[in-house]
Amino acid sequence: MHKQLFQGPMIHLAAIDPEKDGAVEAGWTYDLDYARDLRSGPARPLGALELRKHYDDLAKKAEHGNQFHFAIRRNEDDELIGFVRFPNIFWTHAAAIFCLAFSDAAILARFGSEAIELTLCFGFRELNLYRMETILPAYKVEAIALVEGAGFLMEVRRRAAIYRDGRSWDVLHFGLLQDEWKARELEALAL
Asked: Is 64 a member of any domain?
């Protein structure tokens, strides 16, 4: 079965444009939820120049082939709505960790399933990975439903691993194997 690698019905994966995307993402960092997901340290707004430097650093790391980063754009107007990041690829084990970041919860709800499908196609088909993993805090209920809907299984629960808004939250590790993904694709074709 042949599918477009970077193109879906409503969105596509594209190269990050440091100049334009930095300006857009800088506005998103004023949203506390987005800013917290972006970095492991304290949340804070980031400027366009700071994000452009960050993108340039990512591009240098990607040259070594151990990281991949994409902008997620709507097909209708090429508007930036999020990012797919593969910050850790373990070639020896045919495994990778990825994360999705969207401008807001409404965008996640509308385009999340398609974005995860494109991400899985890239990881399993193009990178020839056998295992893909994502890590989410327990309070990200919508994102958890998204990955579970894509067939991911919760494999690890790190109890009280992060502290947000006056309380501790578990951190959940979800994994999906290529065989499981292929079986789901075959089931979908049979329907």
From this structure: yes
